[in-house]
Every structure is written in C-alpha cells, then in structure tokens.
TrEMBL record:
Family from the record: Belongs to the FPP/GGPP synthase family.
Protein name: Uncharacterized protein
Xref: Gene3D superfamilies: Farnesyl Diphosphate Synthase
Organism of origin: Rotaria sordida
GO terms under biological process: isoprenoid biosynthetic process
Record GO terms (molecular function): metal ion binding; prenyltransferase activity
Keywords, comma-separated and alphabetical: Isoprene biosynthesis, Magnesium, Metal-binding, Transferase
Requisite cofactors: Mg(2+)
Pfam families recorded: polyprenyl_synt (PF00348)
Length: 306
C-alpha cells in the first residue's frame, strides 16, 4: 500500500537538526531496515481494527508507523551475532552485515545496526506521541497507548531471553516443552500483534466497559496468531527454499528448540491446522461484519512462503 510505504520513510529533516554526515549514515541504516519489503501484516491488522471502530486511516497512521518502527528495531536486534546471528533478512544482507552504500567500513556495521535499532525506538515514541496529539486523540488514551507499548517491549525482551536460554540451556520441563514454546511465541510475536489489535480500541469512542470486553477477546486472538506465526516460521526453517529471504536451517545451527524439533514436521502441521480453526472462529466473534478479510490475513500467515 503506497500510503503505508510513504508514511514509513524516515526523512533526515525530521530531526530538525543541521544535516550532518553521521546523521545521514544512521538514518540510511534505519530506512534500509524499515523499507526492506516486509509483509506489513501488523500495520494492516491495525488499520482493519481501526476501520472496525470507525477511526480514519490518516488519523491512526502515526500509531501504525510507530509500531512498525518498534517491530523493525526488534528484528535488527534479533539478527545480531549475540542473538540469532542471521546474515540475511527478507532476501538481503542483515543490517549488521552491510555497508549499504559503502558509506562506513565493515568494522562499524554491527555498531551502526545497534544504534539504528535504538534510534528507531526513539523515533517510534516521537511519531506516535506527536501524531496522535496532532490528530486530536485525548491525553488519557495516548497515555494508555504508551502503557501498552512499554509492556509490549518488555514482554518481547522476556520472550527473546527465554528463546536464548532454550537454545543454550534447553527447556528443562520435559513434559511441558510445547507449552513453553507457546509462551515464547506469545511474548516474542503475539505481543506485538496484541498491540496492533488493542491500541485502536483504546483510541475509539467506545465506553470503557465495552472497550475492556473487546480488548480481552483481541488479546486472546493475538496470542493464537502469535503461535500460528511461530509454528509456520519453524516449518519454513526446515523447508529449504530460496523464497523465505533468510538462511534456512538456522534453528538447527543455533540449537534452537522449536515446534518442529519437539513435534516433528507432521505434528507441527497438524497442530497448526487445529490452532487455525480456533483462530478463525475467534475472528468471527471479534468482527461481526467483514470478517473474511481478516481471515484472509490469518490464512496467509499459515500458508506464507516467507
């Protein structure tokens, strides 16, 4: 969607500081990751919820962009040698593996990637706050938005810590490995989806009691989608094709405990279909009308090739 891609572009002038070479080098790194051609599923889901609650796209676009910046920052960190140690993301070298336009020596690439990720988090806060205020949302609702986002980032870090420990220490609960994987998927993936589903409701005109009722259902929907997303990711890791845009068998290389390593390919596929059925049923409850479009997004998540 052109409106999304245009909105995501980070202009060097946005900082309102003199144009200096070092700033341009950093912003080019931020744009390299943000504009890497992702699926934008999180932004699309946010706009779908906004439409359900009668919020104009232009008014909520700063929130969608801000959360996408946060998501991108997490991917930059996730690819670093201390985390997943991935050389490719979306078919291109990961940020810490490229000089982009040969504008820095290779020895600075990892440091620039770390700084770009942190700067994207700062940019996210500014874009969300300034944009929502300018578009007329109340201070109280914006405060609640930042509460959701801060909890999202904290939970994401907990999920990544659990993932790292699982890879290096293992999952000690031999009878609860799948449940532990569900928890990791919920924290690492589901919580970002939860933010895009819940925050438009907070900005809506609904009564607080109605908001809380709807938010509870959307949180559960996000948890299920997060698990679906991770199960499909784990399957993609063993489906050795060039279409996924990142190294295959990376989970095996990193000794990562996955749904496939615990359940096998067939077991993961079977569980994926079970969770898909539950998720589609919950979508019907959350979207009394026009649910099919949201269902198409969910089906894409479980059938995607990258």
């Amino acid at each position: 969607m052109p409106i999304i891609e245009d909105a995501l572009n980070i202009d060097p002038m946005i900082t309102q500081q003199p144009s200096i070479r070092d700033k341009e080098v950093l912003i080019s790194a931020m744009n390299y990751s943000v504009k890497a051609g992702g699926k934008r599923l999180r932004m699309l889901l946010l706009l779908m919820v906004a439409d359900l609650y009668g919020i104009e796209t232009r008014k909520i676009l700063p929130l969608a962009c801000g959360i996408e910046y946060l998501h991108t920052s997490s991917l930059i960190f996730d690819d670093l040698p201390a985390q997943d140690n991935s050389d490719l993301r979306r078919g291109r070298p990961t940020l810490h593996k490229t000089t982009i336009n040969d504008d820095i020596p290779e020895t600075l690439c990892e440091g620039r990637a770390q700084l770009a990720a942190i700067s994207l988090i700062a940019m996210s806060m500014s874009v969300i706050n300034d944009g929502l205020i300018q578009n007329g949302f109340s201070a109280g609702s914006i405060t609640r938005i930042f509460g959701e986002i801060s909890q999202l980032m904290h939970n994401l870090c907990i999920g990544q810590m659990m993932d790292l420990r699982a890879a290096h220490v293992g999952i000690t609960e031999s009878n609860g490995q799948v449940e532990k994987l569900d928890q990791i998927a919920w924290l690492k993936t589901g919580k970002t989806i939860e933010a895009v589903l819940v925050t438009p409701v907070i900005l809506s005109d609904r009564r607080l009691a109605d908001q809380n009722r709807d938010i509870a259902r959307l949180r559960e929907l996000a948890r299920l989608i997060g698990i679906l997303f991770q199960m499909r990711d784990d399957l993609l890791d063993v489906e050795a094709t060039d279409t996924i845009g990142k190294p295959t068998a990376l989970d095996v290389k990193n000794n990562t405990v996955t749904y496939v390593s615990v359940l096998g390919v067939d077991g993961t596929c079977h569980r994926l279909q079970q969770y898909l059925s539950q998720t589609l049923q919950l979508v019907d409850e959350c979207w009394p009308t026009d649910a099919e479009t949201v269902k198409d997004v969910v089906r894409h998540i479980v059938s995607r090739k990258f």
